Amino acid sequence: MLELKFVRAHPEIVRADLTKRGDTEKLAWVDEVLEMDRRARELTVEIGNLRNRRNVISREISQARKAGNDITRLLAEAADLPARVKEAEAERETLTEAVRYRLMRLPNILHESVPVGKDDSENVEIRRWGEPKLPAFDLKNHGALAVEHDWADFERAAKIAGSGFYFLKGRLALLDMALQRFAMDILVERGYTPIIPPYMMNRAAYEGVTDLADFENVMYKLDGEDEYLIATSEHPMAAMYSDEIFEEKDLPLRLAGLSPCFRREIGAHGLDTKGLFRVHQFHKVEQFIYATPEQSWDLHEELMANAEEVFQQLELPYRVVSICTGDIGTVAAKKYDLEVWMPREERYREAVSCSNCTAYQAVRLNIKVRDPTEFTEKRYVHTLNSTAIATSRAIRAILENNQNEDGSVTIPGALRPYLYGEETL
């Protein structure tokens, strides 16, 4: 969320950012926020004056009584003051809530390098790695291949949980575990602390992490409880230090979360409807960093480099794209996607999302860092996140890119130590 004092001081920056995004609805909010904030501050002064008048009038009544003067008018004014204070406080509270509502939903200020575009078709490719594979034989659908080898069971999963779920069996279950440990080992070697977070969060914590009104439709909420199953371990890691203050010497703090991820809405997208690409539940290793503002942009590149290292060691061709204004969403100031090559579709598909959220989440969650030169001075930290690996999408990429004509699948060399040294699934 944007700080109110930032909007007050730099409304032209906020307007320019919303214009760049093409968000005319929220553009109108800027003037609304400024006007409501002006009136709320006016009311604060008014309330102070009314309370001060209450003290003064008490003295005037006392003095008038001693002098034997008529106090009817003073008593009437004194009787009226509590209602006037209450009315002003109610108006101020309404305005304050309306300002906060808008501040919670105004998007982050974009980095100047974010490309302008209307949607994901206008994201900008930055680089590619590896040669896209186009086998001479007809590739089998990864879901069909998994069923054929008895590595997965979609029908029985649908019977007990509904569509979009799956049983992974045998070697594919081991492959999922291998991918998790492989990615985690890379991050641990680079100084990241492994985290297994709670798989549920309460509403207050979730509203600190993201705009829950926009995100709630993809989440699972427990009936009768103020709890949600997490959509990614980024969210509990982001909220982990809410209402706390870091010492600057302790930043950056690098975390590596491992969790299942739960998402309700997966849509219907042709080849994605049967298989492992769009599912309700999957495992993911997630990178997360708390940083000072001076550190965050270099660390954004570090996160992307870590994700690329994972896919390079898996020998999976990919490209990196910079996400445009029409696709970036509310929270990130800049975002990269890593898209892995899917030879059956002959195109790249998203496998990694890497974001610098600057202070946007920290303002909502009240996470600050103390200035080492001025003990009482504090500022908001920056938060960054990136997928290291989402196992279901990586499994599909391996089943397609490493599929052999006889239906076997070559195990990437980097994963063989995690799969008993075997070379094929």
What does this molecule look like?
InterPro entries: aa-tRNA-synt_IIb, aa-tRNA-synth_II, aa-tRNA-synth_II/BPL/LPL, Ser-tRNA-ligase_type_1, Ser-tRNA-synth_1_N, SerRS_1_N_sf, SerRS_core, tRNA-bd_arm. Pathway: Aminoacyl-tRNA biosynthesis; selenocysteinyl-tRNA(Sec) biosynthesis; L-seryl-tRNA(Sec) from L-serine and tRNA(Sec): step 1/1. The chain has 425 residues and is an alpha+beta fold. It folds into two domains: 4-105, Orthogonal Bundle (Helix Hairpins); 120-418, Bira Bifunctional Protein, Domain 2 (BirA Bifunctional Protein, domain 2), CATH 3.30.930. Helices cover 43% and strands 19% of the residues. It contains 13 helices and 15 strands. The protein has helices at residues 4-9, 11-21, 24-67, 72-105, 142-148, 154-161, 170-189, 203-209, 212-215, 234-239, 296-313, 360-365, 391-401; strands at residues 124-129, 152-153, 167-168, 193-195, 200-202, 227-229, 245-247, 253-262, 281-291, 318-322, 334-342, 347-356, 368-370, 378-380, 382-390. An eight-stranded mixed β-sheet has the order 1-10-11-12-15-9-8-4. β13 (368-370) and β14 form a beta hairpin. The longest helix is centred in the first third of the chain and has 44 residues, at 24-67.
